[in-house]
Fold these 4 entries.
Entry 1:
Amino acid sequence: MKVSVKVPATTANIGPGFDCFGMALSMYNVVTLEETVYPTNGLEINIISNSKDDLSAITIPTDKSNIVYKAVELLYNYTGQVVPALKINIKSNIPIAKGLGSSASVIVGGIIAANKLLGNPADEAAILSIANEVEGHPDNTTPAMLGGFVLSSAEEDGSIIHRKIEWPDDWKLTICIPDYELATQISRSVLPEKVDLQDALYNAKRCALFIQALHTKDSALLKVALDDKLHQPYRTRLVPGFDEIATSLKDVEVLGTVLSGAGPSILVISENSRVEDVKNTVKSTWEAIGIRSSVKTVDIDTTGAVIL
Ligand code: HSE
């Protein structure tokens, strides 16, 4: 039996919602799992990328240290079973190490495919919890599975509390992807262990304002709410061009410019009428400092992971 699962990319944090806010985007990976007797070592992993550039600097392991295999193994263990000989194909359309949830996408894809192979023993809560165990934070894995804009909190017992909130159609998402990579591990390593109380309060207030802005579709409030003092001030030095782009986009009157996940991609939220100006401004600002980029306006994916 063979199962394929299509899973969206995600953008996490979205300003103040560090490790909590995330949103699924209309870019997809497909993970296919097949129980087989073919591989001599019990495992064959093939990665098929649309763009050769995606795989240029990052070597993805194709042995049992691969995150998809680890996720699949946790699901089999959860059901009290041993992983059989497996063939895993990953069709990769989400750029790797760009802050777009490529790892969350394949983790979720692997778990859902394995669950289907086993006759669906794990429910949604168990799948989300296993995905978080592999990824380490739920703000990419939860929207990758459920679609939409999602709040998620990983609890001490491993469960994930989550809620989906409707994203206003008028708030367009432009994803700006530079040609360099930034591993989440490196981007997390520059964060302090402890933060100033005033900074923590600043973000708590911004998160509250953000949710109210969403519920009332209040663009002016969103503009204020998108600011952050917990992660971006430490990370933007790893993202050449971020400060210049954020400054230039103030003239374009966007709603906000934030790091996508741990970076280096940048998410710009704007009204539709500003989208072309956003793209031109970001491209030319990066070009001026010698950075090639891909800049595209994407839709929010409201469906999440789908078994094909
Ligand atoms: N919330 C995580 C971080 C997302 O910012 O490190 C990583 O994609």
Entry 2:
Amino acid sequence: MKMLLTGGAGYVGSACLRYLIREGHDPIAFDDLSEGNRDAVPADRLVVGDILDKDALVNAMREHNIEAVMHFAAVASVPESIKDPDLYWKVNVVGTKNVLDAMRETDVDRIVFSSTAATFGFHENMPITEEHEQRPETPYGTTKLADEWMIKEYARAYGIGYAFLRYFNASGADDDGENGEDRRSESHLIPLILYAALGRRDHVKIFGSDWPTRDGTCVRDYIHVEDLAQAHKLCVENIKPGVGRHYCMGNGDGTTVLEVLHAAQDVIGREIPHEFAPPRPGDPATLIATPEKITKELGWKPKYTDIRQIIETAWRWHERYPEGYTSKAAANA
Ligand code: UFG
């Protein structure tokens, strides 16, 4: 299937693009490279463009005879969204509207949308299922929920088929260590732990030691990017016009921040410098998803269910290319 992947040169988008190629699909990345990396996708599969430019989206969809869209492009940092909601409403909501309008103009009637655990906000009872109420607490979460509503309304009125994948903690790298996480400004736990291991940072900060969890640090559900890619493929192949699906994407298992640190130390075989710091605003204590619905409905089966395996793949990438795609370009020059 011919697909346009907005944000297709970013961390999750490019992992999906490479996976879809291996699975016999024909994906094209549409990415402004503000966070994405040119070298994360084959050169002949990249259109450089911004989702705030609707005409550029229309042109890309026409030129490549696109049949379905996977919409990854977004600004996606919880702390940044609290400081700068303007940016989040613009890129995430106006950008998504442009994607939908461009789809209407070019008769593309299928979309898989990257949603997030942040649309659920704070809940006591875990794991989170598709039935939990969505009550986001941060602009990142509210803008992504607004996108879900917009897509649903477009779907109802214009016959678009859709799937929402609400990611929990996307993590890991390609098994061969050739592609992985590399953001302009990193805020995620696993890459920051590995940067501290490599000496790119003095230490990793652990945000909070007094959360109501088994060791006082936050619990998250880490899901490997390739398993997320598999979910995207299953969704796009099963979307029907005018019908919607929505799934929580985690492994069903919670891991504390300290457990992630210890697993990384085990994988690497040495101590990683770390310090405790105050809790980060907007963080829920615990976020765990159950992937039962997508497993039952679409036969999704994760390849990486253990945090150690996930960290091993990430470490292979970071150890081989300590400065990410900059190191990779230098190695291939
Ligand atoms: N953490 C640290 N130190 C760091 C970075 C993170 O202790 O330097 C902690 C965080 O407090 C959190 C856990 O590690 O408890 C994971 O943090 P990440 O930043 O890696 O990921 P988040 O859980 O904040 O983010 C994820 C998704 C977002 C989603 C958010 C919902 O990446 O898309 O959950 O809260 F919005």
Entry 3:
Amino acid sequence: MKKIPELFGSMVFNEAVMKERLPKDVYKALKCTIRRGTALDAQIAGVVANAMKDWAIEKGVTHFTHWFQPMTGITAEKHDAFISPSADGTVIMEFSGKELIKGEPDASSFPSGGLRATFEARGYTAWDPTSYAFIKDDTLCIPTAFCSYTGEILDKKTPLLRSMEAISKQACRVLRLFGKDVARVTTTVGPEQEYFLIDKEDYKKRPDLILTGRTLFGAPSPKGQELEDHYFGTIRPRVKAFMKDLNEELWKLGISAKTEHNEVAPCQHELAPIFATANIATDHNQLTMEILKKVAERHGFVCLLHEKPFEGVNGSGKHNNWSISTDRGENLLDPGTTPADNAQFLLFLAAVIKAVDEYQDLLRISVASAGNDHRLGANEAPPAVVSMYVGDELAAVIDSLVSGSSYASCGEKMMDIGVCTLPAIPQDNSDRNRTSPFAFTGNKFEFRMPGSSFNIACTNVMLNTAVADSLMAFAAELEAAEDFDAALSALIRRELAAHRRIIFNGNGYSPEWPVEAERRGLLNLRATPEAVVHYTDAKNVALFARHGIYTEQEMRSRQEISLEEYCKVIRIEARTSLNMLKKQIIPAGVAWSREMAEGVALKKRIGVSAPAEAAMVQQITDKTAELSALTEALEAAVDGAPSGLEACAMYAHETVIPAMEAARKAADALELMVDKKVWPLPTYADMLFYV
Ligand code: ADP
Ligand code: MG
């Protein structure tokens, strides 16, 4: 292996490569585009494209692709060779500025939620110079945004870039009031990724894992996660070898994989990178998920990114660590050490608190999926109620500000904005509240609801836009104020008082919390179909329109895509269940009871009575009959789905899923009655405790 600094970013057309390979003026212009978001001139694009091509060819690359993030949540690519024919029958290797800037994939089969009629199938991809081009599988990948020809957005990157612009604009306005002339503010994100690794041989024997990503059947393993001996445990050598390989692949792509450890569930692990801008972090996380799967294959594993691959053990999430930072590197969620810094911090903190309270629904919707429904509200994950944890110190500060009571760290005086210095806010892990969906962790917020398989773009679009909206209102009020300090104090107090109901520092997993949350008027949107229908509520449509992120039509299309995906996922799961029940599980019950019955008959013939075995034959036969009836009921449930997306999604949630669960319960009971040698599926113990 090369030394890490040499390896790191070796497959990325990053600033160092640009500087080395581009003429000075071109490099400067490109850098300006990257930093400031200014438009790039076509001629300059031509020079950049050529340099990219030469660099890539030296590394054995033959093709290029526009790499984009359609609404499927995964990434898409269509490869084109660099070759261009010459008159003499030979080819030359070409890559033009036009090809770099714009692509025209036939987009008819991507979900568009009715935005794009199939006769107008064309869409185009546009280069996003703020995320570096990179080489993957001998192909030069150009990160791009994806739009329809009529300008509607069809991807996850475009709204993210727009939301980053929106928050930058409003944050700069606010900072100007504090006498700071800042050109650009970016949101930073560090997504921690959880995943499971299982043996490929087990995976291959499980149609449910292959078709749905999760086990639809499986009795609990005699040992699960109750000993908590996996969390931070020694990483077994086979997994360590995988992680080493994984890190190298990620580092080559400039992805700063930093932390790795075993998670709570057996064979569950976590990977955390060093944070980057929201845009780059999103691209990198998409790549990370792809590479996790690829590298796992090479090591005889399969990487499961589903939110709940195994019932009864922890599911996988993705913690979205989020902050806002100026182009001079000032973290705006860092409390600071002077009273003036504190006042600014408190204003940004109030902006986030207001945003999360007012747009709880959007945050919840951004993490809604059939897979994540198994997690949110279950024991190990944050509940489906969105609330914020700010820690005891900040909670005391907020109390003092709102109620005017005395505050100890301030010399028993009332907390006064711009006069009193905040106490040091601990950033260590020890006292963090792990049960909160949205926790302040010293200088950033950690949003813990996203599922492990999610594209984090949506969550960050919601966060950026909602916070931009708070900042816009704050800026307008403070710009008009005659006495800035007085207006600032009044505003912070008022907003904290108005939105303090969203703050909850207690145990989010306790049964009392949802009751208390309801009393406070917080939303508890338990399942995807209940949540997603609120996406296009008037206040949400108005929010995105105000900041130029989505049109109402684009939002309706996204809502439709989400509901449709939910219906399809449940339908696939139900059909896979039916298939396994009819072709594997029921036949196993029949075969085993028959084999035992033959044994009982044989014994009887030679005068041996075997009443226990005869009773077992009866039990297995009864269980198989019960299962057979439940299978029929499931089939009827699948066939009875109503038309209309909303109705179909609610029906899937209320009727199909319970029918699947009932059949599963009986199948899992049968598993425990049947000889392992006739049971057609690897068991939970096999999969979770492989060697
Ligand atoms: P823990 O598991 O205790 O939450 P980790 O170290 O696993 O902590 O993950 C913390 C994540 O937060 C890392 O990805 C880190 O880069 C990220 N992070 C740290 N500071 C910021 C910041 N200012 N903005 C966004 N993410 C941040
Ligand atoms: Mg964390």
Entry 4:
Amino acid sequence: MTSFTREHVRALYDRPLLPLIDEARAVHRSHHPDNEVQLCTLLSVKTGGCAEDCSYCPQSSHYDTSVGAEKMLDVAHVMASARRAKELGSTRFCMGAAWREVKDGPAFDRVLSMVRGVKDLGLEACVTLGMVTEEQAKRLKDAGLDAYNHNLDTSRENYRSIIKTRTFDDRLRTLENVRKAGVTVCSGGIIGMGESIDDRCEMLRTLANLEPQPESVPINALVPVEGTPLANMPPVDPLDLVRMIAVARILMPKARVRLSAGRTALSREAQLMCMFAGANSIFYGEKLLTTPNPEEEEDLSLLRDAGLTAMPPRPSVTTAL
Ligand code: SAM
Ligand code: DTB
Ligand code: SF4
């Protein structure tokens, strides 16, 4: 595959919005069902107390936020949430842990049991646990894991202004380990952290130049959280989010592009425009990991009013209850 250049991506980003959306729509329609949105549910299975210093994150132990370190959830609790998510129409269940990296031992074994349980329900299973080795990723694969979320968050150039406790290359290494283990890659980033347009483009370029490209690309708008260094960032312009999604869709035609954190600050119209520009998934349920998300009923009525449908469970990833 030819790799995208800096100039190519920037030229796309700088196009007038309507032709950009036109192109993104054309790409979207030739690779995906037009009216379908995947609903995914997130659950924080180990909240807070994280050793990393990600400037956006309420779960970092470096900042004084309202999120404290909690004990890890037990498998039964997670299964009850997964069952409820399935009943409400989600087809993917993503479990997050506020870890810098996975450590072998009882906590990781518990995550493996959670993955097996979620797969037994016929849901797609995704986890986000910080850095992993290839061996650990293989154990997750053997437990049935479909996807591993590990975001690049921003450009290589901007990385150190956001996170100092790990490097951009650490991030890429984990993505490689996940890929080698045969687990699909979910990787995206955040806008609204004070990054430049070039940083946004470079982040998308790095993702699009991965071979193969990520199967899933979450685009988050910063949720500013009291106590974090980014608490006072001005809100993201919704049209910037639309533009990011359109460029992601064009560069990564087959990926599922996920309109992720930040939807509570968006109007229905802005969310719909993101879907029009190529987003075909949202996080569904009143909480993301630790911050609020729209209520289920609001999302269902948005889909209904727009004539969109929630993606049905796919037979290939579904077993009977
Ligand atoms: N500890 C793991 C890691 O960093 O990979 C997993 C959990 S972490 C919360 C997952 C992702 O959530 C981060 O990479 C970041 O992109 C996103 N995120 C965290 N806090 C956010 C915020 N306040 N606003 C938007 N996105 C956020
Ligand atoms: C992603 O890119 N966004 C989700 C998911 N992957 C794990 C997480 C968003 C977290 C927002 C802040 C919080 O709720 O703690
Ligand atoms: Fe820890 Fe992940 Fe939050 Fe960074 S984003 S502080 S690694 S939980």
